Prior knowledge:
binds shikimate-3-phosphate; 2 domains; 29% helix; alpha/beta
Amino acid sequence: MDITITKAKQVLGELRVPSDKSISHRSIILTSLAKGKSEIRNFLVAGDTLTTMSVYRSLGVNIHEKNGVITVEGVNLFGYKEPEDILDMGNSGTTTRLTLGVLAGQNFFSALTGDSSLRKRPMGRVTYPLREMNAKIDGRDEGNLLPLGVRGNNLSGIEFFNKKSSAQVKSAILLAGLLTEDKTCVVERVKSRDHTEKMLLGMGADITVEEENKEYKVCITGKKELSPVEIDVPADPSSAAFFAAAAAIVPDSEILLKDVLINPTRDGFFRKLREMGVEVLYLEEREKVGEKIADVLVKYSPDMKGIKITKEDIPSMVDEVPLLAIVATQAEGETVITGAEELRVKESDRIKAVVENLRRVGVEVEELEDGLIVKGKQKIKGGVVDSYNDHRIAMGFAVLGLISEEGITIKNADCVFISYPNFFEDLEKVIRR
Ligand code: S3P
């Protein structure tokens, strides 16, 4: 499906965007490890999280839905059943990497594959440290690429330095650590999203967190039963970001985004918008099941300034970097993004996708190995762009379409289903033409 987005006069109104993808994945995976029934409210119903649900059903976990509440009957740490067939991870890196940690310590064989994008993405960042814990994993490219086979084994603990600050890697190691009697620690120089450790703590895991001298360390001692929990998933800041960006670049706009997760490991995009001079207010800050949330108000800013984004900024806005580059086309002066090489191994090569698409709509941009440089105050002529089958690229360029002279057509836009099935409907709701 191709979609064309044309110029808007204004972006105005109020929205509760879909629930957080990271927390929704974890709400199924972690509660499946508990002993007993957990309840999840406001679970994200979208491509990636439905993949997680179906994978855990294939592992013998009863998961049902009634009146919008999902019940997961946790099987305890080692109660999964050997899957009869290959587990299909679809497009989801989070499902794959976290599940590798769980499967590595079971006493059965499992095989995993995914779609053509996922089969290109590096899994060695998880399988190699898991092998150090005694995991028996094999697959293409010496265990770096799907399909992968996992022969479950008795694991042992490790101390692991998470150089890329990847939350998926950290979570996989912690989940594997949960399956050993030893202590397992993950150290990070820049803290990555911490939902796994927060949720494990809430479920009674033997887990500790230390933050000192700019070093973050989380340790878990495993083989302790997890208690079931009730989870209420807040709105996803990565989805809210598209509407915040739209309000920031379309004249006279103002939008109120309700119930948004503002965990400091996730709200980097909102903080960077503020640094650019955009008015971004957190209203009614509150807590929901251990996570900070707020209603986020964003107003149009005619005087946005270009900024620098460096390596330390990336983890808390990793999925929003393409969108920031899009917003930066309207700022005064250059925006320089570096230290973002991880973008090359996401659902698409997001540096290449942004650079090529920006050029297609008439924007001058310089590609760097680890980022890009965007010139400010540029006219958006419009044209045809490619989603590269990447949901965040499709949504980002839809936002840019709102200030384009001739409209932007996004090829293969249905990929928004991965995280935000009703994105285009919600966008129409807040656009004034
Ligand atoms: C995620 C972590 C990030 C992010 C992804 C979701 C998670 O990936 O890009 O969309 O839920 O843990 P990395 O861990 O590879 O940085």
